Amino acid sequence: IGGTAGSIYLIVADLGSPSGEGLDFINGMTFLERFYSVFDTANRRVGFATTPFTHVTTN
Predict the structure, then answer these.
(1) How many domains are there within the chain?
(2) Kind plus residue range of the DSSP H or E element containing 30
(3) What is the C-alpha to C-alpha distance for residues 19 and 10, in angstroms, rounded to an integer?
(4) Which residue from 13, 58, 4 is spatially nearest to 31, judged by alpha carbons?
(5) Residue 5 falls inside a structural domain
(6) In this predicted structure, what is the pLDDT of residue 53?
(7) Total-model pTM
(8) What is the residue range of 41's domain?
(9) CA triplet 44, 49, 54: central angle to 5 degrees?
């Protein structure tokens, strides 16, 4: 998308999937940078924990 190195950008796009069926949302890099994320595929769950970056201010 271009932009400045070291910057964080919000990108919004239509996934083409109606709510209630299939993929409803994606947690992108900006969200995932703020938390320690654990993906437990065997038990079909995702866990999040706070990090020093969870409550930083962005514009």
Answers:
(1) 1
(2) helix 29-32
(3) 21
(4) 58
(5) no
(6) 79
(7) 0.46
(8) 33-59
(9) 130
